[in-house]
Design goal:
The chain is an all-alpha fold. The chain contains five helices and no strands. The chain has one domain. 71% of the residues lie in helices and 0% in strands. α1 packs across α3 and α2 crosses α3. This is Anti-sigma factor ChrR (Cupin superfamily).
Length: 85
């Protein structure tokens, strides 16, 4: 089952990019919705991993790897679906 919350809204929450009123609303929702709590945790884990990467890895030429990265992202998303398994 998926929640009605937009992933972009959860990402903004995870990055502390919402205004205080929105933050309170999303915080309350995330504490009550296990699906969104998992999504926020995953976003925070990804952000932490990206922050640890050296700048030269982030700023390099990614054009030759986009198809490979897209496929890996799709496989990872499918592996996390509860109905798969």
């Amino acid at each position: 089952m998926r929640c009605e919350r937009e992933i972009t809204e959860l990402a903004a929450y995870a990055m502390a990019a919402l205004d205080p009123t929105e933050t309170v609303l999303i915080d309350r929702h995330v504490r009550e919705c296990p699906v969104c709590a998992v999504d926020v945790d995953g976003i925070r884990t990804t952000l932490a991993a990206v922050r640890r990467l050296p700048a030269e890895e982030l700023l390099g030429n990614w054009s030759g790897r986009l198809a490979e990265l897209r496929e890996a992202a799709v496989r990872a998303a499918l592996a996390q679906r509860p109905d798969q398994g």
